[in-house]
Design a protein that fits this description.
This protein is of the alpha+beta class and about 400 residues long. It has ten helices and 18 strands. Helix 8 packs across helix 10. InterPro entries: ArgE/DapE_CS (IPR001261), Bact_exopeptidase_dim_dom (IPR036264), Peptidase_M20 (IPR002933), Peptidase_M20_dimer (IPR011650), Peptidase_M20B (IPR010161).
């Protein structure tokens, strides 16, 4: 099966995870794809195929004779998607010989344009896969799944020598829980790569340190005609909280290694209000300074409005995998050589986000991230090129060859 055929086959199975759920996995629909993949993995000749009760799917391709002592490599992708723009059937649209200009997405009224996405001009002549503009596509991260299983099929049909290869597909990555119940012993790899990046050739081993911050504001609500020196409007205090933060240190105003505060939701009335942020920074010291800033805001506003008016809760989410992976730089060196072999320019970039590999690295499985050929994830403008996916498969095959011939 061609890699694009696999992707189209997978994205039509909707698998949004649910951040509000307390179940594991957070949505039962993820099992629909997992069972489909379980069957396909068995048909491809993988052994020890296990789908556990938390929707983690594992399998192995045993080493070819004489290659049993090669380091055991693993490849990981996630089955869930974001819940945004995923409330109805996903209809993939294939555009052959894309002209590099504006592309109307179905009848949605949305236009995929180089004005917002300058890289589109570089995709001229390629075959693009998009949604119809009313949903996400789901290439994040079903492209990674498609590329891993296409790589496995190529190894089998072309009888390529290899060490033991481990495969795993995880649930709930999009809500930060993809590595929570990952069974390292069942997986069995010494090193691994997640396939969860953007452009083909991306190699990422630096990610944000991450936490979420929740402000709860308790107001004092009285009749507005009698509010002089008495009323505390919780919504206005919430606005003060946000105004205390540096206005340019948001996702829109930052790039590369620059961190940010991101207000993701807010609710407010006179009596109470809530602000929910995610906070990110690649630098560990800078990350701690950001948390200190939040605590200072809590302290100062309580001094102004009265103790207990503002309550801050900070929850750490993941750490920068660099401190683990930099001890195993062969993972990056071999990935760069694999890109060269596949005729792709390697792009060693920091992740402005996180992957399952962030947490898995700290659990003892060094796990950098590779690109899949996709772009504009998490929204209706999501797109991927067939050629980018094919190149990603070639990179995986070259990577396995690097370790086999080491």
């Amino acid at each position: 099966m061609k890699v694009q055929e696999r992707l189209i086959n997978y994205v039509t199975v909707r698998t949004p995870s649910n951040e509000e759920s307390e179940m594991v996995p957070s949505s039962t629909c993820q099992f629909d794809l997992a069972r489909k993949l379980e069957k396909e993995m068995e048909e491809l000749g993988l052994t020890e195929v296990v789908l556990d009760d938390k929707c983690y799917l594992y399998g192995k391709l045993p080493a070819t004779e004489g290659k049993e002592n090669i380091p055991v490599l693993g490849f990981i992708a996630h089955m869930d998607t974001v819940s945004d723009f995923c409330d109805h059937e996903i209809r993939p649209v294939i555009t052959e010989n894309y002209d590099g200009g504006e592309l109307i997405l179905g009848t949605s009224g949305l236009v995929l344009s180089p004005k917002e996405f300058p890289h589109l001009t570089e995709l001229k002549g390629r075959t693009l896969i998009t949604s119809d503009g009313t949903t996400i596509l789901g290439a994040d991260d079903k492209a990674g799944i498609a590329e891993i299983l296409t790589m496995i099929e190529r190894i089998q049909t072309e009888k390529l020598p290899h060490g033991t290869i481990c495969v795993a597909f995880t649930p709930d990555e999009e809500i930060g829980m993809g590595a929570e119940y990952f069974d390292l012993e069942q997986f069995g790899a010494e090193y691994a790569y997640t396939l969860d990046g953007d452009s083909e050739g991306e190699i990422q081993y630096e990610n944000f340190n991450a936490c979420k911050a929740e402000f709860e504001i308790r107001g004092f609500n009285v009749h507005p005609g009698e509010g002089k020196d008495t009323m505390i409007n919780a919504s206005l205090v919430a606005m003060e909280v946000n105004n205390c933060l540096p206005s340019m240190e948001t996702p829109r105003g930052t790039e590369g290694y620059e961190g940010f505060y991101h207000l993701i939701s807010m609710q407010g009335e006179v009596g109470e209000a809530k602000l929910n942020y995610i906070v990110r920074d690649h630098d560990k010291a800078g990350f701690e300074e950001r948390k200190k800033t939040l605590r200072l805001i809590e302290k100062n506003l309580n001094e102004k409005w009265g103790e207990g008016t503002v309550t801050l809760k900070i929850t750490d989410q993941y750490r920068n995998m660099k401190e683990i992976v930099e001890k195993h730089m062969h993972l990056i060196g071999h990935a760069k050589k694999a890109c060269e072999t596949a005729g792709v320019t390697s792009l060693v970039l920091p992740i402005r986000g996180g992957t399952d590999g962030c947490q898995l690295s700290f659990k003892g499985l060094p796990c950098p991230n590779l690109g899949t050929g996709g772009h504009a994830f998490h929204g209706p403008y999501e797109h991927i090129s067939v050629e980018g996916m094919e190149k990603s498969v070639e990179i995986l095959l070259a990577l396995i060859k690097e370790y086999t011939e080491e």
